[in-house]
Amino acid sequence: MADLEIRNLHVRAADKDILRGLDLTVSKGEIHALMGPNGSGKSTLANVIMGQPNLEVTEGQIIFKGQDITEADPDERARMGLFMAFQYPVSIPGVTITKYLRMVMNAHREARGEAEVSLKDFRKLVEQAMELTHVPREFSSRYLNEGFSGGEKKRLEILQLALQRPEIAVLDETDSGLDIDALNTVAHGVNTVAAETDLGVLIITHYQRILHLVAPDRVSIMYEGRIVKQGGSELVEQLEREGYGWVRDEAAAAA
């Protein structure tokens, strides 16, 4: 059984049907790439997995580690081991990165019945994660994402991934807006954490370039709120050659 299982998921937002009977699985130790044209519902899926309250699940289930979490609060899902790197990370003025990271780490430790991390151990862990993700140490005292470039925000998301060590991570277009150096750093962070922790990854992207650096075990193509094609890395190569036109054609023929 997969660690994360989406069953016949139907989702509405602002009286519009976005997901229309979607089925998807992600297991620990697996890199699963989700691709599709604009407007296919990829980011809606990412947000509903994490419990975004503005999205209405009208049918179907989200199962994580054998438990139905369809109605669970976002913080409950995070404590269970789900993680999401956002497409557009928000700024939180007045909250330093250090304070935020320690708060999150202690919340996860509390969920596991562990004591709060000592300041000495916390500093050591953060320094290791910063080295892995090429985040300068002086960032520790800055406010969360305040004045950060797009690339800096994405590196900080991967820094959180390296610290939290979740079981399943959903990366919602983490590669968007990155230059090649930032892209390499993000990919290196994901690959390292995945290798060290048996992390399962659902990587959502429009582009093929990150999938040359974070090699997927499986690829799913999404169109109009459903998974319409699944396979291996050969699908990435086909999309690179032909674009999404053939996906639309096949979906129309099957309708």
Mean pLDDT: 91
First-to-last CA distance:
30 Å
Report the sheet with the most strands, covering strand number, pairing sense and barrel closure. Answer: 6 strands, mixed
Give the total of beta strands. Answer: 12
User: How much helix, percentage-wise, in residues?
Assistant: 25-40%
Instruction: Give me the side-by-side strand order of the main sheet.
Output: 6-9-10-3-11-12
Please state the overall shape, judged from the principal axes of the Cα atoms. globular
Enumerate the spans where pLDDT stays under 50 for 5 or more consecutive residues. none
Rounded to an integer, what's the Rg over CA atoms?
A: 18 Å
Q: What's the topology here?
A:
Elements: E1 4-13, E2 16-26, E3 31-35, H1 42-49, E4 56-64, E5 67-68, H2 74-80, E6 82-85, E7 92-96, H3 97-111, H4 119-133, E8 143-144, H5 150-164, E9 168-172, H6 180-197, E10 200-204, E11 218-223, E12 226-231, H7 234-242, H8 245-254
Features:
alpha/beta, four-stranded antiparallel sheet, 8 helices
Explained architecture:
The strands form 3 sheets. The chain has a 6-stranded mixed β-sheet, with helices on both faces. 38% of the residues lie in helices and 27% in strands. Strand 4 and strand 5 (67-68) form a beta hairpin. It starts with a strand and ends with a helix. The chain has helices spanning 42-49, 74-80, 97-111, 119-133, 150-164, 180-197, 234-242, 245-254, and strands at 4-13, 16-26, 31-35, 56-64, 67-68, 82-85, 92-96, 143-144, 168-172, 200-204, 218-223, 226-231. With 255 residues, it is of the alpha/beta class. Helix 4 (119-133) crosses helix 5 (150-164) and helix 5 (150-164) packs parallel to helix 6 (180-197).
